[in-house]
Amino acid sequence: MAEAITVSSPISGSDKTLSFETGQLAPQSQGAVVGRIGDTMVLATANAAKSLREGMDFFPLTVDIEARAYSAGKIPGAVFRREGRPTDSAILTCRLIDRPLRPSFPEGFRNEVHVVGTIMAADQENRYDVLTINAASAALMLSGIPFDGPIGAVRIAYSQEGTWVPHSTYQEGEDSTFELVVAGRALPDGDVAIMMVEAGGTAGAWQYYQSGAPKVTEDVLASGLEEAKTWIRESIELQKELVAKAGARPPMTYELVHDYRDDVWDEVVAHGTEPTAKAVVIADKSERNAAMDEAAATVQAKLAEAFPGREKEIKAAARSLSKKLMRKRVVDDGVRMDGRGPAELRALSAEVDILPTAHGSALFQRGETQVLNVVTLGMPRSAQSIGIDDTMAEEQKKRFLHHYNMPPYANGETGRLGTNRRSTGHGLLGEKAMLPLVPSEEDFAYALRLVSEVLSSNGSTSMASVCAGSMAMMAAGVPTHAAVAGIAMGLIKDEGKYITLTDILGSEDAFGDMDFKVAGTSEFVTALQLDTKIDGLPAEVLAQALGQAKEARLQILEVMNKAISEPRPEVGPTAPKIISFEIPIDKIGEVIGPKGKVINAIQQETGADVNVDDDGMVGTVTIGSKDGEAVTEARRRIEMILDPPRAEIGAIYKGRVVNITKFGAFVNILPGRDGLVHISKLGQGKRVERVEDVVDLGDELEVRVDDVDQQGK
């Protein structure tokens, strides 16, 4: 067995160490690196197909995460005791890895590339996602696959003291107000080009802000992105050290695919500029797309005879011409394809109470982007269990869920319905943006599920989901701490000139150089997602983009506030009424009863849903029902169990048999009060062999109290 080659380096500003190892595991993989922080270990492998698949017109990069339960000493809970489909956490990690890696391959490289991250060990303290980005980059550097790396990545948490903590642990993240994941690569001048950012506020952010922690503003974000470069450089240098020590495989031979050649481009420009220039200025999406398709078809017909068999090249060149003309108009004239200026928002509208049976609903529209959000409130038991397979942390409950759906009809197209990595990622981004404003379980005992239905799409549906979700929660009576809105920004760089675009269209997203989503309240940022296609983003450009995004966010919040300015004082008539209160932990058994008989009887007789939980120190009872009187009655019964009335000696009570033993039957005569009717008293003077010969569980009896002990029994 080959010996491992290892490099390691301390992470500055912390007591952690980052290490990379290669040479021992997965020896047949073109690139294989084990990354490690603490006792969390990830095996990242990178492999590329030796030949190009015929007809491939895109770069087929696939990133997979294999989260193994054994990494945390667990056996999967599924029926077959095997890991199932990728969890949301794994899908999000796949997207985090893909986003900085994909732009780092040569343009025109179309060989299939497969990157796999296998979680080998999870110490349930240090996270695996950012570690996998670094290890995947290192594996690609060793593989011989053409890759413009290394790529370094770091997660930094903004502490309550106002400092950035590098490679934050689960606990450090929970104790912070905000977390940033930043990836980038080194530039020749020593600077770091930021390529990807994924960030969001924590569940405890609002509480920490109320206690005096500094808020995460646009200036704080900009400073965090600058500080992240230090730890990105450290990872990059360590990867270079690994390559120097282990040696990379010989570069693979490959053929670049050109979408079109110069001769086709020249003719498409000559024949297509005029009709395409007219098409790209049409404001309406469907009309613009139809005009662009017509212009492309016209060019195709004109050039078909001159370039037989090269239809794909003509089509690709026509698309590139559309991109060039759109960008040129913005740069030269400051006018976008729908006629807006760079910082101008599309028309906005907002409305609540769209669906009569929903617990809360809201419709938000920005231009041709329209999203309906629906809130459903449920008992705490409806919270999603997040196990070891999902986060590699200790098992926990997730009571706030946001799901995102975008069917094909949102773009006027046909296709398959269902979830995919994009919809999962967009749902989690919206969830991250709204989470800091959701009240704690102590203040609002409900589990919440928000569903965003994209009914029409033309840019920034994820941020429209945030706006609709914020309003829908207020309409549902969820006491959110503040309204939150989101906006998608774009960027065009041309000859050293940077132009930031507010509220980008779908086409501007595809043709631009940056996709930049920001969500927040009027005072602070709650989520950020950034992907760039260019090397380096000057600090002043980023600061200007963040400021421009805040101006747009404030305008959107004004429109939202006109629809609903604050949470309604109580949940709606269709929502369950839920109360929650604490009980002594030693009383839980009495409330539940033997085999759940007491709690089941309360639920059956009142119609309320009763749930009892504990944290090892105190019990928590949650009662819910659409009927408020049922909730009140269930609470009254439980309180009588906690402090039951005492039976009077000599009094006669009607009761119900709740337990049968060999020596008698226990009869419940008062809430929390059971009495024993001895077998000798059941036969009315006759000998009884078996208690069951006289009474059954649930039978009603009339009994007289002969004695009460010191405990009231």
In short:
31% of the residues lie in helices and 27% in strands. It contains 16 helices and 28 strands.
Q: What can you tell me about this protein's structure?
A:
With 713 residues, the chain is an alpha+beta fold. It folds into 5 domains: 5-246, GHMP Kinase, N-terminal domain (Ribosomal Protein S5, domain 2); 262-333, Polyribonucleotide nucleotidyltransferase, RNA-binding domain (Arc Repressor Mutant, subunit A), CATH 1.10.10; 348-561, 2-Layer Sandwich (Ribosomal Protein S5, domain 2); 577-642, K Homology domain, type 1 (Ribosomal Protein S8, Chain: A, domain 1); 652-704, OB fold (Dihydrolipoamide Acetyltransferase, E2P) (Beta Barrel), CATH 2.40.50. It is built from 16 helices and 28 strands. The strands form 6 sheets. The chain has an 8-stranded antiparallel sheet, sandwiched between helices. Strands 1-2-3-4-6-5 form a 6-stranded mixed sheet, with helices on one face. Strands 11-12-13-17-16 form a 5-stranded mixed sheet. The protein is elongated, with a radius of gyration of 31 Å. The N and C termini lie far apart (72 Å). Mean pLDDT is 89; it is low at 387-391.
Provide the CATH architecture of the largest domain: 2-Layer Sandwich
Mean pLDDT: 89
> Can you give the helix content as a percent range?
25-40%
State the CATH topology of the largest domain: Ribosomal Protein S5, domain 2
Q: Regarding CATH, which class of the largest domain?
A: Alpha Beta
